[in-house]
Model the fold of this input.
Amino acid sequence: MSEERQVRERYDLTMERIRFIVSEKTVAPVYQAYFETTAEFILKIDGILNRIHSKKIEDCTLEELQSENTNIYEDVLGENYASSYANPTYAVSVLGEEIGQLLSFLYTEIRGEIAYVYEQKIFYLTICNELFIEIYNCFEGEETPNCKELKDIIYWYASDYSDVFFADRIEEQLNPACSFATDIIVNSDLTDLRYLYKYGEYVSENEWKTAQHLNSLSQETIDKMAEVYTEGYRIGFVNAGIDLSKKSVVNIRYVLGFERVIKKAIENFAEMGLRPTIYRAAVSVLTKKQQHKIGYYGGIANKQYEYDHRLDQGLILDKKLVERKLDVMKNTYEQFKELAEKHAGPAVMEVFGEEPFAPEQKEAAVSLTEKQEKLSVLYDSKAGQLTNQYIKGDERSFTIVAYPVPEIGEQYTEIFNEVIRINTLDADLYGKVQQTLIDALDKGEYVHILGKGDNVTDLKIQLYRLSNPEKETIFENCVADVNIPVGEVFTSPVLEGTEGVLNVSKVYLNELQYRDLKMTFADGKIVDYTCSNFEDEEECKKYIKGNVLHNHDTLPLGEFAIGTNTTAYVVAKKYQIEDKMPILIAEKMGPHFAVGDTCYSWSEENRLYNRNGKEIVAKDNSISILRKEDVSKAYFQCHTDITIPYEEIAEISVVTADGSRIPLLLDGRFVLEGTEVLNEPLAHL
Done:
């Protein structure tokens, strides 16, 4: 009997059992509704599987597809989430504290079947169904099951199937033959928006209207958008002195609705000798990285739901599981090491404009113990080292560009056109002006940044000391290549002597809002932090530690930059979308400070030069240089940019060895001779 047939028989057996669960009454009444609801959800998935086998998307009406899409996401949409078992608060309220938390996790893991059914991963469906049945069996009878027994079942599910879920995940990142999404993009009629329902992702108005808008654009405009994206990627390799001809794989990450641009980008990359890997953002506790969407995805049906389950690994995380996942990771990379060697890095198309999200902290949600936080940090470190061993940091590059979605407001079309303009600003003009800033910065011992009004920023950023100013420089002159759009000069600060307070009134980091964020630095490392998101100070600290420090006790200041894209700043002000701008553009709209790794992590040895021929030498700090002794001490696997808007800046000045000051910005305006052109857009405020 073939393996495929064996899997199908296992799947059919699970479905036969699950059909009985809907109607039989063999568990205590308090749990009956939960198991019926979950079983009914699985039956919906089975119905989609049968539909896929009997009726192609092209044979379905748009109304049928929209109904199918809503049907499988409705339990977490809007007000429905309040009474969904996916909501840990609700699950705990009706099922009890420990069991409610476990069963909410189980329901969430089962919801991953949405992705599996559209990709027709029958084995994945079978695994999840068997997990559900095994847990259900524990509840049959009069006695409430032991929570340890339930946790053990979940743990062994994670451990036993790491070599399936996790190994496949790595292969999807490396192997262009895993082409589910690529096939949709390349082979679909993109003028027929029914193609959006082939993925199994939630299709909101953002994805629908984005695709509709792109279909209204000329091919010339689409080509221009794709060229900015792919040419920025290519130039990143040129600037870093990396031979792109040795690579054959590019990882494309994007959000549904942009297929027309991505299709053209695939053609452009093919001319460079690159084939795409386009993998879905992870849906299982085994492969997710908190709430972050890494890969392609559609609408986020409920951001609070994603946030509530970001730490579900707390139910299973221990040293053995960490070792198991790392072992699977190494074996899979070894299996596909030739593809890994030819992996060129990610090309990312982000979106922005959605309603800003400030999460609710829920007691019922799974959290990590202090020991698990340390294990999580350890895992990230070792996984980063393994990835770099097979996809070498100094032999890869990336690019990122961002566009708005319709949710940004009624002036979406105008904003979209403005963003196209921002993404294609004159790189030569910015290059010359930014060089003027760099020439002044290269004279300094440190930079002093002072906040304005209620902003209490008072930071001293120590600068690298040049030994040969004629041939060397401290700051990189960043025009539109890997980070699109143009508009910043940046460096890796010297940690020793970097000190003071960083403050910003409101900022969005990884789609989470922070109000009155304050960080205090000593010798370049965070020594204190707070915000005003929650009344409880400890909740504020926990929020920052988990989502900005990524569970590290401290992080260094890995980057200091001055953003120069006043055009983007004025557009944000004009349309009142400052709080919706992505960090990719926002970081160009004022000075910014990145906590975590430097911009050059894993590629410090690559020799880089600015347009004037000077070599950029400030790439390391006293932590990153530890890679030469013990790489595990050098990197944190995170880099989070925090921008202070121009209007919150009183002064940015370069302080030289003799104590004299060279003002660069005063009261939010550029004052250095040769940079006045940057103020011209500001005159339109």
About this structure: The CA atoms of residues 138 and 383 lie 35 Å apart. The mean pLDDT is 95.
